[in-house]
Task: structure prediction
Amino acid sequence: FNVTTFPNEQKDNVTKWLAEARATAGVDLYPYFAHRCILAQVYPELSSGLATPGLVTPREVFDRLYFIGQSFVSAWAYDTGDGLVVFDSLDNAAEAENILIPNLKALGFAGTDIKHLVITHEHFDHYGGARWLQDNFHPATYASAAAWESLAAVQNGPLKDKTIAEGDELTVGNVTFKFYETPGHTPGTISAVFSVYDNGVEHKAGFFGGVGFPSAAAAKAQQIASLNRFADLGLEAGVDTVIANH
Result:
């Protein structure tokens, strides 16, 4: 770390404190460590505009597939004809209550329409609102085994419900979601392939569940392998549309 130039730097201390900050951040908070402890110190103007939460008008992106998130992190809702399947739950209970649910209401839905909730990976900006949604609307909630293992240690985290494994399919109404384990961003990241429609014309969507690069070299290598594998799976499935969760 001491190769980085810092204002009024004390090189003997920079490495020490950055190493301690990185250890404290761990895997879950590594992006915030990199943002606040490295980027913001050297490029404050760039840092101030990076990853800033803000409100986004909810909208129908494909037929019956809706964006209901905010400017930094996504949440998606698919109207399957038999209730909503929601991917991710924003940062916390307050955002679930004050952003996600109002966005659904603006589109003509209610929280009670959420029948299934998929947690793409075990970072708080994706599971943070899940417990509130569980407590208030009781959707079936899905995550990978590795994600559930990590989430078990989270205070007021989502209650363990259903486990998604490699190749599992979830059919709700007239939509089938096929899931794949794609570790790297986190050990429990899952991705999905499913059909979407644009004015009635079918397309195949690939939803990769964790795009940010992890901190550890081994995890980076694992993520590259998962990206390459998911790309191959997408080619086999005829994917022509990419959806992300940020």
In short: The chain has a mean pLDDT of 91. Residues 141 and 161 are 6 Å apart (CA to CA). The first helix runs from residue 11 to 25.
